[in-house]
UniProtKB/TrEMBL annotation:
Keyword DNA damage assigned: yes
Biased composition (Polar residues): 164-175
Family: Belongs to the DNA mismatch repair MutL/HexB family.
UniProt main location, coarse: nucleus
Start and end residues of each stretch annotated as Disordered: 157-187
Protein name: MutL-like protein 1
A single GO cellular-component term on record: MutLalpha complex
Superkingdom of origin organism: Eukaryota
A Pfam family annotated for this UniProt entry: DNA_mis_repair
Keywords in alphabetical order: DNA damage, DNA repair, Nucleus
Amino acid sequence: SASTSSRLDAIRSVYGASVVRDLIEIKVSYEDAADSIFKMDGYISNANYVAKKITMILFINDRLVDCTALKRAIEFVYSATLPQASKPFIYMSIHLPSEHVDVNIHPTKKEVSLLNQERIIETIRNAIEEKLMNSNTTRIFQTQALNLSGIAQANPQKDKVSEASMSGTKSQKIPVSQMVRTDPRNPSGRLHTYWHGQSSNLEKKFDLVSVRNVVRSRRNQKDAGDLSSRHELLVEIDSSFHPGLLDIVKNCTYVGLADEAFALIQHNTRLYLVNVVNISKELMYQQALCRFGNFNAIQLSEPAPLQELLVMALKDDELMSDEKDDEKLEIAEVNTEILKENAEMINEYFSIHIDQDGK
């Protein structure tokens, strides 16, 4: 630009008169402390300026540079004033001692960092915020004039046609498939109205016994599925379960442990204290009945000694805490022999293989 032109003239020639119209002047100086001396002057956009991208022209000691921290702070101030997705226009010139500017941030030396940068940015941010608050008393909104001459010259017969079409639409019933779901309380706004021929399938409810029979037929279970005693136990479970408790356990959200035995779960808006030990025992019991004769076998890299496992279980059992170690070992040996004698049945029903060595 020419040497006689001002900063506003330079901005007007590059960015247009519409930008200059919404600019306000700002000046800040800080000379109280020797390590934070700086002067800033420039122009910032007011609340009427709207743009999709921020425009920030920053000169430090008459050199065009970038300062990411300062740019983010200014954007944060404007976010409370401008409409959403609108960005400001900033022209700023800062003067401070050259030894307070670090130009070795980027290879191009365009990005700079300042000594006491946080204090300087805070001072500039407060000044911009004060300017915006004082200039935000009025807002300008662009409007478009309505062309009344075109409406007056329109064919008056169009009004009759529109009236006839309006009366026809009132009497004509709109198909449900063409409606927009707006209110679930309205019968036409309920979701199931838009399902065609699927309601009957969705309303089918299978009891636990029928579902179990389908799964059993798919798994091709062994003769164990036909045991009358097992079937009676399954029927007893199906007939004695509590629907409310089943819904809580099925649709709960785990919160956390309360102590060694109790845990917190949430169902809807209520919290429940659950005995983890008791519910785990019941779960394992029902799992054993449902999968009786069809357990998945897991092969260990090294067979586990059965007698040692029984001793470990006896040591952890609170009811056996008063017994001596010799007595626990004797109990483990007796039970090991019983399990070895029934190894074939255990393998068939529970898929647990026990060899002659008790492993």
